[in-house]
Amino acid sequence: MLNWTDLTQDWSAAYARAKRRFPNLRDQDMARVRADRKRFEAYLAERHHLTMTEAHEEVEDFLFTEGLNRELAHR
Question: Where are the domains of the chain?
Fold first, then answer.
């Protein structure tokens, strides 16, 4: 599975996909929250009216999906 550090290495590509999945993300907030996963999860919970547990699970699922996409792209 992809981890948060790996994801943020290519943030522009990952953010475009995250924005499709989480449409309430705001571009101007990303510099403040993207470097720290826990901060991003709290931001995601706030913007999408999720509990912290739900936000954590959503990020886990997003990382899993992104990892699968990268594996398929390298085959």
Answer: 4-73
